[in-house]
Amino acid sequence: MQRRGEHPVINKVVPSFDEAVSDVNDGASIHVGGFIGPADWPAYLISALGRKGAKDLTVACCNMSGIGPIAREQLAGEEALRGFTGMAGTGMDHVTVALLIERGQVRKGITTFSAPMRGSTGSAFESMLEQGRIQLELVGQGTLAERIRAAKAGIPAFYTPVGVGTPLAAGRETRTFDGVECVLEQALHADFALIRAAAADRYGNLVWEHPSSFNATMAGAATITIAEVDRLVDVGDLGPAEIEVPGVLVDRVVVRPPVPMKSWREEH
Amino acid sequence: MLERLPPEIVALLVTRRFRDGDVVNLGIGMPLYCALNPPQDVEVIYHSEQGLLGFGPILDPVPDGHRLQTAGGHFVAPRPGMSFMSHDASFALVRGGFIDYTVLGALEVDAEGNLANFMRPGRLSGSVGGAPDLAQCARNTYVMMTHTSRDGAPKVVQRCTLPLTAARCVDRIYTDVAVMQVLDGKMMVEEYAPGWTLDDIQHITGAQLVASPVMREISLQ
Question: Mind telling me how many Å the CA of B217 is from chain A's nearest CA?
Fold first, then answer.
């Protein structure tokens, strides 16, 4: 919050990715948005957190399989691009949460995908799991999304029929509603949420041009929500019906540089 | 040697069930063949987990900079009437019963309709995705897979041995050999590949098969 004379001015824009994640310390819990395509991921925020090196992180993220950029640097050409889900990648800009895993910064992952995807080069998560260096909480995607949504909606827990009779719901309380057995799932709040959106204004209002996936779901489900955006626009440029996530759910906004990322190691 | 059906043909058997306005979610693996050759004369609304509803055909080649993708990673064309939403809203659709058909791959399916498809034997790690919600909550849960594994082991079994993705959820199984309805703990063969007998199919199946009263040879007519 900066001040103009006596009047507070809302301005959530932070000048650099490194500054945006400067208070993410060891042991923090983090929600990370991102799904399939490179444009779904907060690649610069993840890279900044990789540089900062905070460790013992608990990370909730839909897709934690795939290899990270360090492993990819060691592979050549086509092989490297197959590292994520088998589709063509876009070079260094395709930084995912796998970076934090391969750097040993993640103590526990809460995710729907940890095994290598079909046709992929490997999974940093699975390698760490085999070495006993990471814990896995495997969750179905709908339950993961609703646990995160519940956290921002002030719902401490909810019942769902999904998972009954499977290891995914092992140890959960159950209750039957209208003859349907359900399991009790708890809200999943984090210290930080790192998300990606197409555009923001200084209020932190966010819009997307593609499915927002977990990025919109995670906004507000953390003490501090940090949005990495392609464009910053003036307040008023985003129409009220167009704003998918209102700025009150967002604490920091960082704008991506117009040129592609060269390396996750460099500050931008 | 009895011939098995190619996946393109199995996909046709699945997609001919779709009707105008049906909402369909296709899993990764063999169900992809349903997306490669969608029914032309029916207006189906395809759903993808990340909040994508009503997308168009798979693009090949992919134009430069094209971003619209399915959960399986395939680039698809936009289509009039398409809509986007968040992941939580997308799965509210799933749990809310708005998905008419989900077609999923599987490692094992059993006579109780239990589905195992997220963890391979001997692995510590899994790929569960949205399958628990889709399998449990879609109005029709179909499995599309090869009848046996690569080493010849039955995938249609009396009782799953691998960890379950969802319990008592599968309605029909489409394999390269047969179409089976899972009903009241019975594995009922509805259709079989040309040349195969119930005995031939039973020979490569772990579950006790029953002939459906309407059992017939697969025909694409």
Answer: 33
**Does some domain include residue B1?**
no
Shortest CA distance from B28: residue in chain A? A118
Q: Which residues contact residue A255 at a Cβ distance below 8 angstroms, ignoring those fewer than 6 apart?
A: A13, A200, A229, A230, A231, A232
Residue A162 within a domain: no
Average pLDDT score over chain A:
90
Centre a 10 Å sphere on the Cβ of residue A45 and count the other Cβ atoms it contains: 29
> Does A12 map to a domain?
no
Query: Taking CB atoms and an 8 Å limit, are B87 and A114 in contact across chains?
Result: no
Evaluate whether residue A170 is within a structural domain: no
Cβ contact A192:A222 at 8 Å: yes
CATH code, domain with A203: 3.40.1080.10
**Confidence (pTM):** 0.94
**pLDDT greater at residue B29 or residue A131:** A131
- Regarding an ipTM greater than 0.85, the answer is yes
Among A113, A138, A142, the residue with its CB nearest the CB of B94 is: A142
- Quick: pLDDT tens for B203-220: 999 999 999 999 999 997
Its domain, for residue B14, covers: 7-217
- A1 part of a folded domain: no
Q: In this structure, what DSSP letter does residue B60 have?
A: S
